[in-house]
Amino acid sequence: MRFLLVEDNQDLASAVVERLQLDGHVVDHADDLQSAFDFTATTDYDLILLDIMLPDGDGRTFLQRHRAGETQTPVIVLTARSQVSDRVGLLDLGADDYMVKPIDFSELEARCRAVLRRKGGSARNVITHGGLIFDPLAGALTIEGQEITLRTRELRLLEIFLNNPGQIIPKSKLVDRLFSYDEEVTENAIEVYVARLRRHLAPSTVSIKTIRGSGYKLDVSP
Fold first, then answer.
1. pLDDT digits over 71-102, tens only?
2. Considering the entire predicted model, what is its pTM?
3. Which of 127, 109, 95 lies closest to 220, judged by CA?
4. Is 2-120 in CATH node 3.40.50.2300?
5. How far apart are CA 17 and CA 31, in angstroms?
6. Are strands 53-54 and 57-58 parallel, antiparallel or unpaired?
7. Which three-class secondary structure state does DSSP give residue 28?
């Protein structure tokens, strides 16, 4: 999944990015409000982690504009303010959750998982197609009872396809979803990951079709 971290403390930001990347997420980092607005204007995110005290303003300004745009992207606020009134105010503005600094990384990961489950509308977002069972939050795939080990980006690629069955997905969009702005990649890299994923999916009723000149489409056989 693709996250946006809005945090001006570089040491904390680096630690959060590194931890979330270990979980297989793509993370973009904005260190001020304007950068955050620029990122969200061009990219769709699965989750936003938002600091409040930023060098060019208050993170609550971002949260208000974010919710005014009727976007459903969940937001977890990172705040140094521990007063109940402050936390209630953030939730009323549209935050989905909050964490009081200093941050415990295990708790942060758990809160991210919980918010993403709620976004999906279930306690556990398991996707099934015939003998294929995929749990994106646990990073677990089984096909006909056999556990399949996927690399991190293969897991995220499978998640994208399973969440968009029958839709044509351009290579450019897959690049956007799998890689951060700091990574220099070409669309040829997507072809490599798709080829690997196809081999893993071969025993299942799920396949990835190439739509020449357009991209790829997930096909689920009866």
1. 889 999 998 876 778 778 888 888 999 998 99
2. 0.73
3. 127
4. yes
5. 12
6. antiparallel
7. strand
Write out pLDDT tens, residues 118-158.
876 544 568 888 889 998 777 889 999 999 999 888 988 99
CA dihedral 33, 38, 41, 45 (to 10 degrees): -70
Q: What is the pLDDT of residue 123?
A: 42
CB atoms within 10 A of CB 54: 21
Domain boundaries, given as residue ranges, for the chain:
2-120, 127-220
Q: How far apart are CA 75 and CA 69, in angstroms?
A: 14
Q: May I ask the CATH class of domain 127-220? A: mainly alpha
Question: Which residues touch 92 (CB under 8 Å, ≥6 apart)?
Answer: none
pLDDT digits (tens, 9 = 90+) for 156-196: 899 889 888 889 999 988 988 888 877 878 888 899 999 99
Strand blocks (E) in the chain: 2-6, 26-30, 47-51, 53-54, 57-58, 75-79, 97-100, 127-129, 132-135, 140-143, 146-148, 168-169, 206-211, 215-220
